[in-house]
What we know:
Layout: H1 16-37
Protein name: 14033_t:CDS:1
Organism: Acaulospora morrowiae
Amino acid sequence: MKAPTWDLPNAKSLNYKDDQKKIRVFFEDEIKTMSSSGSNVP
């Protein structure tokens, strides 16, 4: 599976999958926050 472009900086990390998980959780959390507050929703 090819990594999304925003994930490329972590490609060299030994904890790549762990980084991906953290990034995904971070983005999901941001999206939830934006959705619930109703601001900055595309």
